[in-house]
Design brief:
It catalyses: a phosphate monoester + H2O = an alcohol + phosphate. This protein is of the alpha+beta class. It has 21 helices and 19 strands. It has helices at residues 34-42, 59-81, 85-99, 117-124, 131-134, 141-151, 177-182, 226-232, 250-260, 295-298, 315-322, 378-398, 419-432, 477-486, 490-509, 522-532, 534-540, 546-563, 578-607, 667-670, 679-688; strands spanning 13-15, 20-21, 154-161, 171-175, 201-211, 214-224, 236-237, 282-283, 300-301, 339-348, 411-415, 461-462, 572-573, 576-577, 620-625, 636-643, 649-656, 664-665, 677-678.
């Protein structure tokens, strides 16, 4: 072994004992001899690179720099990713401080210019997003956030701020989810700082406000305790609504009211039907001629309990079902298992514009419903839509009487040939058959992206010029004779004298010189104007105040009632019962049309398969009319026809007093506490008020 001699390359291994490869040095890559390298370093000071000199670098040097920077970047990214958000923020701020000396002032916050989410909501919030706002998605994120917040609010009842009620300034907002869960605004008083739960009353408010530089108004509801209700109506004295016992006869109440005559606070309008506000407060006389009451503080509607005394403005409806001569005899028939067969309903149109121009509000100011006098307002459209929604709940959802989708043979809607009644019918139908998944695309509405999904039209049939039942004003020669005869009654002469005196006084204030005794446009005009232009009335008419408005309504109320056949004293002259004949002319035609449809539907049901006419599939028949007698807007009377297994037929009467209440069953008042009326009883009363031989012929049925 010792004799073997091994030879190795001199530079392959420097330390053979450890077997280590040759170590590399910083000069290992240099191809120049060592002697040349040393000599070069001696002269380095002569070739020193000055600042600004361009140095040509080798390609190997650039690659090394890239790898170094690349490695630094990855190390920095790894370090940042290992940090939490706060540490990462501190690291970046420290780098900024070190990299930009003196620029730290740019990091100072300008708190006064910052906006929080609350600031954005305050700036872009809308009390009500109208159709223009809903036409498309808001462009800016601020408006999108404001609309999203609005959609989360609960808009059935309002929260009311009464802190400035003495200044007639009322604040309102919608309820939040937490307030709904707590019952605030419904089970608890809706005043902002009130927690009272007893004695709550519902109020309907035509809330007027300014938003985006525009005057707006909308109908809202609020529930308040008695104390907050007084604050809501500060400066006014409201007529107290007392609940009566069911056993008290209605006609006894009316006789008591009749003794008060024109002292009652009643809202009446022209013969075309004017908005009536039930239980509306009567403002105390004011000595100021420049009052600044706002519209939002003037127009209130109080709650209408289910069993309350009916005002004279509702007498038309009670006339239709009680017929002025006494209630029907009590029906002792056993009802058994009854089935709903047919529904007839008639309603008054919604809130409208004034019929006549009266300074300072002219036709050009009434821009609602296409613009013009007497047109339906957005408030009226909403009222009628609510009525349709109520019909849908009763007859589609609860009783499952009508189909979810519009079926042509089931429903027939009729209207007088007046814009406001036609649009009222259309608005009601939008609530009865709203857009929804129950309507089939390509069947009920076009298969087009331009068509509102789920929306379908329902036809409204318009009366001809010769049809007077829906309007009641069936003019004939006998009507003219009755008007002349009525003027001889002492009661009418007293009322006429009061109206004449007020007409002359108002004509002087309005500077009317031509026929001042017939200047009588102001009662109806003011009633509509104050709903929308109350501030303008106080600004332009120095003599106008609430006391004057109430005086005008009280002065004309008795005359309007007499035109419908309502007299305090017996209206019999020369053997003619003027009151009875006026009622026959005003309501007899409509009443008999309702009875005849009930009779024809019952006969159709009895004939079974042999019935092939109009009434075979008909279930719902509706009137949209300018009903006289001054019920409230969107008030409605519904007559339901039922059958039992023995093919006996019965009638039920339902009445809705205003645009807020639900329907109440008034059959017991009509049928002497019976649950249903018979068709025979209905026939007897209808014939009692039927014009004979017809409404166009002079002779009438004896009273």
């Amino acid at each position: 072994m010792w004799g073997v001699k091994k030879f190795m390359e001199p530079r392959s291994i420097r330390n053979p004992y450890h077997g280590i490869d040759d170590l590399q040095s910083d000069f290992g890559d240099s191809e120049e001899p060592v002697s040349q390298t040393k000599s070069k370093r001696k002269g380095d000071f002569l070739d020193k690179v000055q600042p600004g000199d361009f140095v040509k670098r080798k390609r190997a040097d650039g690659r090394a720099d890239f790898e170094e920077e690349h490695g630094k970047m990855h190390r920095r990214m790894a370090k940042m990713m290992s940090m939490n958000a706060y540490d990462r923020h501190k690291e970046m701020i420290n780098l900024y401080y070190l990299s930009y000396p003196g620029a730290t002032q740019l990091l100072n916050r300008k708190v006064q210019e910052e906006k929080t989410d609350l600031d954005v909501l305050k700036e872009h919030h809308k009390f009500v997003w109208d159709e223009e706002d809903n036409s498309g998605a808001p462009v800016s994120w601020e408006k999108r956030m404001a609309k999203k917040y609005y959609e989360k609010l609960f808009k059935e009842y309002c929260i009311v701020d009464l802190s400035l009620y003495k200044n007639n300034k009322i604040g309102m907002r919608w309820r939040t989810e937490n307030e709904v869960k707590e019952g605030k605004g419904q089970l608890i008083c809706g005043a902002r700082k009130c927690q009272e739960t007893a004695g709550l009353a519902s109020w309907e408010v035509n809330f007027a406000y300014k938003e985006d530089g525009r005057s707006k108004s909308t109908l809202v509801k609020a529930r308040l305790c008695s104390k907050c209700s007084d604050n809501l109506n500060y400066g006014t004295q409201k007529r107290q609504v007392k609940q009566k016992k069911r056993a008290v006869r209605r006609w006894e109440k009316e006789r008591k009211r009749g003794k008060r005559g024109s002292d009652d606070n009643e809202e009446d309008g022209d013969g075309d039907g004017v908005k009536t506000v039930k239980n509306e407060e009567k403002d105390q006389p004011s000595t100021s001629t420049s009052s600044t009451l706002s519209a939002s503080a003037d127009i209130w509607e109080g709650p209408a309990p289910a069993e309350t005394e009916k005002t004279m403005s509702q007498k038309f409806w009670i006339f239709v079902i009680c017929f002025w001569s006494g209630c029907l005899a009590q029906n002792e028939t056993g009802y058994g298992d009854l089935k709903l067969e047919f529904v007839q309903t008639l309603w008054r149109h919604g809130d409208r514009a004034a019929i006549d121009e009266l300074y300072p509000i002219f036709e050009s100011n009434w821009t609602f419903g296409g613009g013009g006098l007497g047109e339906l307002t957005p408030l009226g459209m909403s009222q009628m839509n609510d009525l349709g929604t109520l019909f849908r709940k009763i007859y589609v959802e609860d009783k499952e009487f009508l189909s979810h989708r519009y079926t042509g043979k089931e429903i027939y809607i009729r209207s007088t040939n007046v814009n406001r009644t036609i649009i009222s019918a259309m608005s009601m139908l939008y609530g009865l058959y709203p857009p929804g998944a129950w309507n089939i695309q390509g069947v009920d509405y076009p298969n087009s992206i331009d068509w509102q999904q789920g929306f379908t039209f329902v036809p409204v049939h318009v009366d001809g010029d010769n049809h007077c039942a829906a309007t009641q004003q069936c003019k004939c020669d006998r009507d003219d004779e009755l008007q002349d005869k009525m003027a001889e009654l002492p009661e009418v002469q007293t009322v006429n004298a009061r109206m004449l005196a007020m007409n002359l006084r108002m004509a002087a204030l309005f500077n009317v010189t031509e026929d001042p005794d017939t200047f009588s446009d102001y009662p109806d005009a003011w009633k509509c104007q104050r709903n929308w232009f109350n501030d303008t009335l106080y600004e332009k008419l120095p003599f106008y105040n609430e006391a004057l408005f109430q005086e005008s309504q009280r002065t004309f109320a008795p005359y309007k009632h007499m035109m419908e056949g309502h007299f305090v004293e017996p209206a019999i002259l020369d053997g003619i019962d003027i009151a009875h004949e006026i009622r026959v002319l005003q309501s007899g035609v409509m009443l008999n049309e309702i009875y005849e449809r009930v009779r024809d539907k019952a006969e159709c049901l009895k004939s079974g398969e042999n019935c092939t006419g109009f009434f075979k599939g008909l279930k719902f028949y509706g009137y949209s009319s300018t009903i006289d007698g001054w019920p409230d807007t969107a008030a409605s009377l519904t007559i339901e026809l039922y059958s039992n297994p023995e093919n006996q037929y019965f009638i039920k009467f339902l009445y809705r007093d205003n645009s807020v209440d639900d329907f109440s069953d008034v059959t017991s008042k009509v049928c002497n506490r019976a649950e249903y009326c018979t068709i025979e009883d209905f026939r007897k009363i209808a014939e009692m008020y039927k014009p004979l031989p017809d409404y166009k012929t002079l002779p009438l049925a004896p009273s």
